[in-house]
Every structure is written in structure tokens, then in C-alpha cells.
Amino acid sequence: MYGIEQSGTLWHGTRTMALSPFQERISHLSARAVSVEDPDEFNRVFSDLRAALRGQLAHLREMVDDAKETISRLPAKAVLAPRGTERRKGERRKSQRRKVKSGLGGAGSFGSA
Fold this sequence. Notes:
Elements: E1 4-6, E2 9-12, E3 15-18, H1 21-35, H2 39-72, H3 89-102
Antiparallel strand pairs: 1-2, 2-3
Helix pairs in contact: 1-2
């Protein structure tokens, strides 16, 4: 999710997340690129920004590869049994009425003979 950047941290809701070194560098270079008026200086800043973005992209690709490797080592079957959901009384009655209307309610329903 995106947040509002403020003094080296990302604000999202009530939690604050520190920027990674790549993100800090990209943020700093982006701010410089916008404020620079000299074309030669802009080219230097833009070159540094491009290199920082490539470094961030390489880092993200490495993280994805690590996650894929970790996932590939997980057991084929789930270790935990699926969790059943307990419905409230009103929801049970509502679903039962839907079954009755559709003819799936069983004995005593409108659709049974």
C-alpha cells in the first residue's frame, strides 16, 4: 500500500514503516531531480536515480526468488486441517430458507414430494 512520505518514514494508518535504504535513496534523488534547474546536474541526478531504481528492482527480484524457493520447500499437503466456520443463528436460518426456496431443503420443504 502507498503512504504519505514524511521525514524518512512511510505513514500508513496508525503504523509507521521505515524506508529501506533503496527507497530512501530513490526518494532523495527524485526530490533532487524535481528541484534541479541545471540540465547537466539533472542528467547526473537522473542517472543516479536510474541506477538506484535498477538496484531496487534487482533487490525485489532477489526477494521474489527467495520466496519462490521457500514455497517450493513447503510440504505438498497442508499440515493444518481446514477450519470450519460457525455461523450465527440468523445466518443459518437465512441459508436454510434459501435451500427451501430452491428445492434443496429436504423433507418437509416446498420442493419435496
